Amino acid sequence: VEALVRHRALEDVATGDPLDRLMARMSRFVGHLPIRERGTFVGSIAHADPAAEWCVLAAALDATIVLRNKRGERRMSATDFFEGPFTTARAPDEVITAIRVPLLGSGGVGFQEKSQTAGDFATVATMATLRIEDGVVVEAHLGVAGAEGRPVRCEQAEESLVGAGPEPGELAAAAHVAAENVAPISDALCSADYRRHLVEVLMERALGDAVRDAAA
Predict the structure, then answer these.
(1) pLDDT tens across 175-211, in order?
(2) pLDDT in tens, 64-105
(3) Largest interatomic CA distance in the chain
(4) Annotated domain spans of the chain
(5) % of the chain at pLDDT higher than 70
(6) What was the pLDDT predicted at 59?
(7) Contacts 24+ apart (CB under 8 A), 158-161
(8) What is the pLDDT of residue 167?
């Protein structure tokens, strides 16, 4: 995704990959229409709001951040890029020129978000991608936004799914693992306990969405 690609453009991407469907769904949760018409995907990553939709997409899929200054270009993983609330590893003299988001190849996708009002940043949001072969999950990418001070990739929950069947009990167990392994914050919106509860509920829903999407 190049630097000037606006949020609205990602509602209609046509690579033929499941990532198209995921980005189309997530983009509709980004602010309001005027924001989506003017703001950019790369700008959201640079801003690094821990509740932002695109930041959790980058973290969960381990996107590559392409940075440039007058000395040249460097690349880093999204895992290393996000350091805390509105804080990144970008140097003061660097700009982000692109974000390389890996294609999924096949499988299903899901995204769920809870916010105070439509268009607000997420209180908690969850995303899931599942690749299922012969009735077994062979690859999973799970992410949480809004719970901690930076977007979270739920690697332990991913590991719990690989090799399991996509049955409701397995999905619920993975959602519980995701919730148990975040360190949620308390703020004016809600308590840490409520955020942890939202992670479990919304992750289970996102996983269910991904299973249904894979079967469609």
Answers:
(1) 999 999 999 999 988 999 999 999 999 999 999 999 9
(2) 999 999 999 999 999 999 999 999 999 999 999 999 999 999
(3) 53
(4) 7-100, 108-215
(5) 100
(6) 98
(7) 161/130, 161/137, 161/207
(8) 97
Nearest in space to 136 (alpha carbons), one of 109, 161, 169: 161
CA dist., res. 145 & res. 80, Å (int):
16
Structure-block tokens of residue 114:
């809870």
**If 0-12 CB within 10 Å is exposed, 13-18 middle and 19+ buried, where does residue 206 land?**
buried
The tokens describing 8, both together, are 């609205």
Fold exhibited by the domain 108-215: Enolase-like; domain 1 (3.30.390)
**pLDDT recorded at residue 13:** 87
Tokens matching residue 209: 């969405």
Residue type, 104: L
User: Do the first three CATH levels of 7-100 and 108-215 match, i.e. the same topology?
Assistant: no
Assigned CATH for 7-100: 3.30.465.10
pTM for the model stands at: 0.94
User: Could you give the dihedral angle defined by the CA atoms of residues 2, 28, 23 and 17, in that order, rounded to the nearest 10 degrees?
Assistant: -120
CB crowding 63-98: b at 16 or more within 10 Å, else e: bbbbbbeeeeeeeeebeebbeeeeebebeeebebeb
**Residues contacting residue 197 through CB under 8 Å, at least 6 positions apart:** 179
